[in-house]
Amino acid sequence: MAELKRIKKGLDIPITGAPSSRVTEDKKTTLFAIAPDDYPGPVWKAVVKPGDKVKAGDPLLKDKATGKICLAAPVSGEVVEVNRGERRHIRFISVRKENGEKRPFNVAKTPEEIKAAMLESGLWALMRQRPFDIVPDPEVAPRDIFVTAFDSAPLAAKMIDQNQREWLEKGLACLTKLTAGKVYLGVRSSDNLSSRVAEVYEFEGPHPAGNVGTQIAAVAPVNKGEIVWTLDAPTVARIGKLCEKGEIDFSTKVALTGPEIRDPHIVLTSFGANIESLLKDELKNKEGIRVISGNVLTGIRVNKDDFLLYPYRQITVIEEGDNADEFMGWASLNPMKYSVKRSFPAFLRGLSKPFEFDARLKGGHRAMILSGEYDKVFPFDIYPEYLLKAIMAGDIDRMEKLGIYEVAPEDFALPEFVDTSKIELQKIVREGLDNLRKELS
Q1: Domain map (residue ranges) of the chain
Q2: So what's the pLDDT on residue 323?
Q3: Measured between alpha carbons, how far is 216 from 146 in angstroms, rounded to an integer?
Q4: Alpha carbon distance 273, 307 (integer Å)
Q5: Which runs of consecutive H residues, i.e. helices, occur in 156-232?
Q6: Alpha-carbon span 74 to 32, nearest angstrom
Q7: CA dihedral angle for residue 302, residue 304, residue 307, residue 310, rounded to 10 degrees
Q8: d(C-alpha 275, C-alpha 337), whole Å
Q9: What Å distances lie between residue 286 and 289, 294, 296, CA to CA?
Q10: 104 contacts 121 by C-beta, under 8 angstroms
Q11: How far apart are alpha carbons 156 and 264 in whole angstroms?
Q12: Residue 202: what are its φ and ψ, rounded to 5°?
């Protein structure tokens, strides 16, 4: 029987626009793209040029250091553009879908075959390594592998359905061959999900219970000198299908969510789909909105002509709030104004009822206040304020002592949301991890 872990610290943000269980197939999108910035760690180089024909699973980019880790085409068709930014930095490579051809792979049984198939197919790049929250080094074996099977972020849809459970089990069996340690599967206590090959832990509590970092901290924290790999259940199911049938699957279910979506639901599409196509006829308003690839806490603001970014599971659309005109401003007693600290009378109507959030900060930037407000939503056994100060000061010794190896930027999303100082905590952690990795390499 799975051991139950209760997460007490956290926060479920009550935002309108939760998706229904209705699933539609995306037949409108013809343009798809892969953005190398979604895969931190390696330095990527393009191996295709505009006009090249590719099949789904063919490499678009490879890491410069070894040439072993690939980012693959999500669809079959013609390479449209290798879009570059400053200093020829590759922003994305786009492919126009023409047919459903897929590159065939060999069935993989041994650890060497499994690793080779994952590297060549692009599935390896969907994993992350802690410390540093980067694509793992294939030459370094992990202590353990952690898989999360649910997403607790605002408006997130169910991560895995009944049809994927067989492939999930086969994928978990493949992962057990890649580590001498354990493979852990974190599930929601109500999902009735089990495994014969992985060690299953059930989780209860508010967000970030579904974050793999929270699950690692509750089960087996990462110490200095240790490496663990992390990934989500849909990726494990793709690994199972790849190794068992030699078939690559880049299809994904994307939840269209948020108060500005007419009918929030789920769309079946492929990695890197064009956002403008996905949102066609789905928006209440076309002006004054913010489109986010991901959830409202960790997602990235994008334009409508951009592409779905990793981890390819959600698009959220909210109002910008630029034209908001509230009587008395911050001192307004509007019962529809949400506040974590119950500064407004909205708590009288019940904070579990959804609110229509917009993108306004509702406050100004200021110095960090050691008030303990981060601790209330941060379920790690570390001191977040002191760790952040050590990162900003570049003090490596203190960073190590305060738990830098345990965390990733997404773990600081809720502290960033409740922060009265409006500091970009996730950006600070990302830069701190990158600088630490450079110093130690």
Answers
A1: 375-440
A2: 78
A3: 7
A4: 6
A5: 165-176, 212-219
A6: 7
A7: 40
A8: 30
A9: 7, 19, 19
A10: no
A11: 11
A12: -95, 140
- CB contact at 8 A, 242 and 118: yes
Joined together, the tokens standing for residue 299 give: 């997602």
Which of 276, 307, 273, 272 lies closest to 289, judged by CA?
A: 276
Phi, psi of 252 (to 5 degrees): -150, 150
For 302-312, letters b (16+ CB in 10 Å) and e give bebebbbbbbb
Phi-psi region of 414 (alpha: psi -120 to 50; beta: other; left: phi over 0): alpha
CA 274 to mean position of chain CA atoms: 18
pLDDT for 322: 82
Decide: 425 and 373 in contact? Cβ < 8 Å: no
Q: Which amino acid is at 5?
A: K
Q: Are strands 59-63 and 199-204 parallel, antiparallel or unpaired?
A: unpaired
What single-letter amino acid sits at 67?
A: G
Nearest Cα to 58, choosing from 120, 124, 1? 120
**Residue showing tokens 């390696």:** 42
Residue in 406, 401, 397, 393 with CA at minimum distance from that of residue 432: 393
> Which amino acid, 150?
F
What is the separation of C-alpha 289 from the centre of its chain, rounded to a whole number of angstroms? 22
DSSP-based three-state secondary structure for 260: coil
Structure-token match 């409202």, residue found: 296
What type of residue sits at position 2? A
Q: Which residue has the tokens 């002191």?
A: 386
Give strand pairing partners of 232: 148
- Do 296 and 15 form a contact (C-beta atoms < 8 A)? yes
Residue 289 belongs to what H/E stretch? strand 289-293
pTM as predicted: 0.96
- Give the span between the Cα atoms of 40 and 132, in whole angstroms: 9
Listed in sequence order, the DSSP H helices in 220-330 are 233-245, 275-278
Yes or no: say if 418 and 11 are a contact pair by the CB < 8 Å rule. yes
290 alpha carbon, distance to own chain's centre: 19
Could you tell me how many residues make up the chain?
441
Per-10-residue mean pLDDT, the chain, length 441: 92 95 96 98 97 98 96 98 95 96 96 98 98 97 98 96 94 98 96 95 97 98 96 98 97 97 98 97 93 97 94 96 74 77 73 84 84 94 96 96 97 96 96 95 83
Tell me whether strands 90-99 and 31-34 are parallel, antiparallel or unpaired: antiparallel
In angstroms, the CA 403 to CA 97 distance is 45
Q: Measured between alpha carbons, how far is 440 from 15 in angstroms, rounded to an integer?
A: 41
